[in-house]
């Protein structure tokens, strides 16, 4: 069953008209147009389903207002609640594009620039919208029918759909958007072909059209067939169906960070010896991997095991992996200390490692025994999105841009409590003397990562300053304090 901590992602997307422009909700006067060349905040729409009639959808803008059409075809985006004029039906086309039909008035929505209306009785090119997903492209994929997660199966060279909890780096899939279609990329940078094989180059057989059915996703291949799990291990490949049924439907779920922790004694924190946590192992397995789930309100963190239990504070400061649900005693505060972290339990004490490796929350202050090295394991491919867009190579220089609608994929390499970040060209990030982040380093430079909020991290350069996007979009390593411009979805 889906893990409690994992929720299906709210479907957010941009809508692209026949001229290649995005539907935009302006903040001024709630005006609508289809003029923007790229997907930024004002072009993001959230799909909400009607609870009584799942065929009916509402489209909510970034301002929290709903798209509506009256009987004369006049389109507005001012309604702050769902009313009858806000009800639309999605009429999916064979190429994956959508026609949006007003449910009460049965007319179709379309147009260009400032000339948008919902009055067409027939669907022409002007009423067709391509869908560009706006969620972070790295996620876990859940089969609706099997209630199992997809993961890379190295030994079989396939994506298998047979995992109960999306565990480890193998369960991370990256959606790559290319010319209106999507490819599925595994953590070792291979693409899923429609015959179920994994290939190193993307092409016609690796490109899928996304379709929505009752709020779930279906992936249609170049032959008009749909991906579905096949056989006992749930090999992901195209089946015979040319219409998606339950077997062909998937949820995308947020991929929480998964980490391994090394104590001062150089051993990994583990649950291998039973419920009590101890730093006594020399190798990393699922038993030494923990999922960090950060509470949106308190920013405290739970640590979940591969068995689905949570760390819990018990009598006398003991830490056990015995909690089956989240409570106050399973929440911990994380203090980021550069290359190390310290964890504070709800008794106000820091967790320390005893001589026998046992973890106890009994310390009043942070010394060597209270420090742990935390290593993020399930983001070998790093895609970062800030408040203004994705981080991408600058077109004509060695700088990085933090406000793009497309993303570059960087690799994240752990190095003794810090990380090296490199581009596809194999060159490394570094902060130059002017405080600009450059991407053409010959030698690796240390950056530290802080998992601070639900779904967001901060990065510090070796100067201990935060990486942030400035007004013009350029990535700088000069942030003195943590601001919204220094938080990145990852």
From TrEMBL:
Entry keywords, A to Z: Actin-binding, Cell projection, Cytoplasm, Cytoskeleton
An example Gene Ontology molecular-function term: actin filament binding
InterPro entries found in the cross-reference section: Actin-crosslinking (IPR008999), Fascin (IPR010431), Fascin-like_dom (IPR022768), Fascin_metazoans (IPR024703)
GO cellular component: actin cytoskeleton; cytoplasm; stereocilium
Top-level taxon of origin: Eukaryota
Subcellular location as annotated: Cell projection, Stereocilium; Cytoplasm, Cytoskeleton
Family from the record: Belongs to the fascin family.
PANTHER family assigned: FASCIN, FASCIN-2
Identification of the protein by name: Fascin
